[in-house]
Amino acid sequence: MKIVTLVLVVFVILSTSFPAAIVKAADTGDTGDTGDTGNVGVTCDARQLQPCLAAITGGGQPSGACCAKLTEQQSCLCGFAKNPAFAQYISSPNARKVLVACGVAYPTC
């Protein structure tokens, strides 16, 4: 239980350390550094995925709010996976289970 608490604390600290969100460009087709061409106009913000944190770190079932945010942020997952602060969460076995449960494809970056 202590490790889960520690991981949660670290995630919150890291997610608030990167407050600048990435907004995908609408007219140029530029997708920033996410490496994916997803929904135009999506604001890539890892803090939006906080409803998924318990499922990813604890291995439980994702909530409806988690699945909704994953679907919304799907085009941003490659960018999160390339960011050292978030990579361990995106590449974890539990994250894959959460993505499958939510019907979101695992990013191929």
TrEMBL record:
Signal peptide annotation: 1-25
GO MF terms, alphabetically ordered: lipid binding
GO biological process: lipid transport
Ranges where the Bifunctional inhibitor/plant lipid transfer protein/seed storage helical domain occurs: 46-109
Keywords from the named record: Lipid-binding, Signal, Transport
Pfam families listed in its UniProt record: Tryp_alpha_amyl
Protein's UniProt name: Bifunctional inhibitor/plant lipid transfer protein/seed storage helical domain-containing protein
Organism expressing this protein natively: Arabidopsis arenosa
